[in-house]
Amino acid sequence: MTRVVGRVVRTPFAVGSKQDHVATMLETEGRSYRLRREDGNPFHDPELDQFVGRVVHAAGSIDGDIFVASDIQPVAKGQPEARPHRAPESRTTDKPARPSRRR
């Protein structure tokens, strides 16, 4: 499962093609994805409309340029926007390793 933080927007997608439509997108720090819910309509999902213009925490899977969300929670006003979850480093602390004092 992938967790991301991003802003939900509505924007034209695939203009001039057969897939031309206004898509609900999730704009993250690194890239943009078309946003879908697991059981939602891929072209218009009224459940996603409540998140348009808001920053959200989303959990789900990525399939190419589509983020298929299993859970979406808005970031509360005044709450700092958290960074996406990252795997922990090999060290367990943020302190630099201390040199050995053995002689």
Walk me through this protein's architecture.
Helix content is 4%, strand content 43%. It starts with a strand and ends in a 29-residue tail after the last strand. The protein has a single domain (2-74), classed as OB fold (Dihydrolipoamide Acetyltransferase, E2P) (Beta Barrel), CATH 2.40.50. The protein has 103 residues and is mostly beta strands. It has a 5-stranded mixed beta barrel.
Reported by name, the CATH topology is OB fold (Dihydrolipoamide Acetyltransferase, E2P)
> How many structural domains in the coordinates?
1
Fraction of residues in helix: under 10%
Q: How far apart lie the N and C ends?
A: 48 Å
What is the N-to-C order of secondary-structure elements (H for helix, E for strand)? EEEHEE
Structural class: mainly beta
The average pLDDT is: 81
What proportion strand? 35-45%
**Proper CATH architecture:** Beta Barrel
The number of distinct helices, counting runs of at least 4 residues, comes to: 1
Q: What ranges have pLDDT less than 50 throughout 5 or more consecutive residues? A: 83-95
Instruction: Report the count of strand segments.
Output: 5
Specify Rg, calculated over alpha carbons: 19 Å
Q: Looking across the biggest beta sheet, what order are the strands in?
A: 1-2-3-5-4
Biggest sheet record = 5 strands, mixed, barrel
The general outline is globular
CATH class: Mainly Beta
Summarize the structure.
By secondary structure, this protein is mainly β.
